[in-house]
Amino acid sequence: MNKIIISMMLFFFINSSFAAAINSVSATSELVENSWYTKESMSQARSRLGVVAVDGKIYAIGGSTFETVVGTNERYDPKTDTWTPLASMPTPRSNFGIVACQNKIYCIGGSSFTEHGLLIVEVYDPVANSWSTKASSLGVEQQYVPVL
Questions:
Q1: 92-122 pLDDT per residue, tens
Q2: How far is CA 18 from CA 6, 13, 39, 68, 76, in A?
Q3: Distance in Å from the first CA to the final CA of the chain
């Protein structure tokens, strides 16, 4: 009877040692699929922002805080788990369309703090870290559509 108890204890000891070794290895290895991990936070908490990926990096642009609409532009590098502040969007806004095309980021329309239905189209060049304004979506001089 004692041999059975000793054998079982030895079995559990070996299994728990093996499991501990496996867990410590997986903690230092690559991320595991279907799991959540906490990464570095953005510099400014906000909602209704535009997010797009270009060249393996993630760009978080514009959006709104509790107080106002912002033009904040930052880039996340998943390889280094770091955020880099970039040139701010010229027209702070939220709820806008965003798309990457030919390594440029297009921010289309949206809402400012006081106006909804902005017609502004601005393009961000990640290489030059600069913004330019393009023709509005309707090709008109007006920069916004008044809320009715």
A1: 999 999 999 999 999 999 998 788 889 999 9
A2: 18, 9, 29, 54, 37
A3: 86
